[in-house]
Structure formats: C-alpha cells, structure tokens
Amino acid sequence: MGNQWQIARKQLDSVSAILSLPENVHQLLRNFDRILTVSVPIQMDDGAVKVFTGFRVQHNSARGPYKGGVRYHPELTLDDLKALAMEMTWKCSLVGVPFGGAKGGIICNPKELSKSELERLTRRYTYAIMPIIGIEKDIPAPDVNTNEQIMAWMMDTYSMNSGFCTPGIVTGKPINIGGSLGRTDATGLGIAFTIMNSVKHFKIDRKELKVVIQGYGNVGSAVGKFLSEMGCKIVAVSSSKGGIFNPKGMNHGALTRHYKDNGSFEHFPNAENITNEALLELPCDVLIPAALGNQITNENAGRIKAKIIVEGANGPTTPEADQILTERKIPVVPDILANAGGVIVSYFEWIQDVQCYFWCEKEVNSKLSNILDRAYEEALHLSREKKLSLRTAAIMLAVKKVADAILVRGLYP
Ligand code: GLU
Predict the structure, then answer these.
(1) For 12, 164, 321, 356, which has the most beta carbons within 10 A of its beta carbon?
(2) Which residue from 144, 170, 335, 346 has its CB within 8 A of the most atoms of ligand 1, so it is best to mutate?
C-alpha cells in the first residue's frame, strides 16, 4: 500500500483549500493526536520467543472517541495505518457517527500462526495498547485478517486487567458477549445498499446486474450474498490466490462452500480461472474491489470496463486512476461512503453495550440503511452542486464537520 499516506494527506490538502479552512485547523488535521508503537513478544509453540511490532494510530477525536479496526498483515506499515486512521475520521464524520478516527495493527502473517500463537499475540498487543484504549477513549474493531474471535480475546484481556467485564471496549464481538446482530455482515450489506443507490442514480438497469467482486473474504462474500438475494449475477470473484469468471453467473452458496473445502476458487465448476489483475478488467455493471488498497492504478484504469466502481476495500483506487476514470466517465463510489456500514453498526454495537439493551436485526439493518441513504444523498447533492467527484464531495462533507468541531471546541489551554 506504499504511498497511501501521501495520497490521504494530498486529498486533505486539496479539500482544505476548497473549503478555505483556517491554516491551523488544516495543520492539525494533517497530523495525529497520538501514535503508539509497541513491541509484542510472545512465546511460539516451539518454545522460542519472537518479538512482533504493533501500532495504534489515533488521528483525531474532535467529534468523539477514537474508532477503527485492527489489522494483521505481514506488509503492514505505519504509513498505511496513518492513512487508514485519517480515513476513519472522515468515514465517521461523513455518516454522522460520533467517533474520531484510529487504526491499529501488528506486522505478522496470521496464516503462519497457530490459533494459540494468535491468541497470545492478540492478548499481549491488547495489554500493550491498554493505556490508550477505553470505552470512552478508543474502541478497536475487526479489519483485514482479524475477526470476532480476536475481538473476544481483546475484550477478555481488557476486562481481566480492569477487574470487571467491559463489552464496550471493542466492537465486532461474538453476539453472546455483547456483539450486535447484523455486525458481521454490516460492511457487505452497506455496500449492497450503496450499490442499489448508485445504480438508481447512474440509471443502470437493476435487473440481472452483473457484478465482479475482487476479494471474496469477510466483506466481499457478504456483498455477494446480499447482491445474489437482490437478484444480481456474480460473474467473477477472487481470493489472494486468484479468481474465477463465468459470464452466466455463479451461486454464492456454492462459491463459499468451494472456497471452504479447497482454500481457493480454482476448479470451480464451469468457471474460467483468471488472475486478480484480469478480473479487474472484465466487462460488468459493477466492479467491487473488496481486497486491499492500490488495486486500480494508472496502469490498469484505462482498461476497466465496469459501468461503475463501488469501493469495498479501503483505498483501492489511486488518485491517478481516479483521474483516468473521471475522464472515461466511469463513476467511483468512494470507500468512506461505500464501506461505512461496518463502523455504523460498530457504533450501534457500542450503544447497545453501553446501555445493556440489545436490538433485533431488523432494527439494526433499517437504521443502517437510513444512515447510508442519507449520506449518499448528501454526497450526491454536493457533488452535483459543485460539480465534484463523489469522492471529493464526501471528503469535503466529512472534513467540514471535523473542522467545525475543532473550531467550536477551541484550542486548549
Ligand atoms: N475496519 C472497519 C473499517 O475500516 C470497521 C471499523 C470499526 O468498526 O471501528 O471501517
């Protein structure tokens, strides 16, 4: 994800200029409230001690406690986390969730760790970042390669060290320890709602919508499930090992079963094997990059054949690619709008934990859809009024709300 951080800063710079933000507010937003680097030593199953490096980056809390996921990845860098933490500030602000932005993670390859090593790693990392997290301070959540089991270990470690049970310390937990109904699939459902909003707006026929999903993991497969239920055709999917394509469409249930049994999509019946690169260039109505960042670049943007792109992952399109896609009139629905469903239902989970009062799934999903519809309308309205891309409009709305919060709070002391 190399230069993601520079891109995030440049986006902020240009939006601050359009908004004529006071220079002190602009500078504050270009920087971070806090960056913590921790070493995470654990005993491996063979008895050796290995030291991992972990981080928690807190960007801004003008609008509320810090919020953001924890990712485990061998190529994770502090710069990636800075970009992602800043993006969380904008995401929460755009959809009106009263949180600021944060992100954390550990440089590791979870696929090479046993379950007990992963547990020790998670617990030691939680212990190391404990001084700066808290129910009203900073609330972690799942992200790339982390899940509800990891959230359960984080919640348990924090609770044991606090001396009492603290479900609200993380979101994305299992239901039986204070998780919210609908949280696991919330990012995917939110993307599906956003796709429906965008096809309506871009006047693309909803019937038999052909969709291509890069990355059929936590987020991508949930999108696939909901889109199939809505009558769309999944024509291509992939994992990090490669993808498959069948222009006639593929069954979501069969896809997940095949991946579970084989650890890849290869040899899926009646489908052609393709690379992740080729998948992005397939003809389709909606392309959903739902894997990692920097997938659509100046190198391949000229060959994209989708009618619209809806960003499931964080930062999948580079600014150069954005430019090319704008010239080619291929609209891009930005990540902070499209994939905000996860953090919105995280917010619902946190409210339910704090109140010890839990909602039914219907209530969760209808509140999610209301928030996303409103955010889409607001971004669309501004983009039309000022003739801006949806991305610039969305970031502008978000930055404005954070800047207003900073200004009205004033500078301490
Ligand atoms: N990791 C998710 C995101 O990037 C969710 C964060 C959260 O729920 O706090 O939006």
Answers:
(1) 321
(2) 346
The verdict on residue 195 lying in a domain is yes
Q: 307 with 251, same domain?
A: yes
Give the catalytic positions in this structure. 103
User: Considering the entire predicted model, what is its pTM?
Assistant: 0.96
CATH number, residue 248: 3.40.50.720
Q: How far apart are CA 190 and CA 316, in angstroms?
A: 17
The angle subtended at Cα 210 by Cα 209 and Cα 211, nearest 5°, is: 110
* CB-based pocket (< 6 A), ligand 1: 67-69, 91, 141, 143, 171, 314, 339, 342-343, 346
pLDDT in the model for residue 178: 98
Range of the domain at 55: 4-166
Grade residue 1 by pLDDT with cuts at 50, 70 and 90.
very low
Is there a single domain that holds both residue 100 and residue 128?
Answer: yes
How many residues are present in the chain? Answer: 413
Token pair 């609209």: residue: 331
Q: Which atom of ligand 1 is nearest to the CA of 143?
A: 1
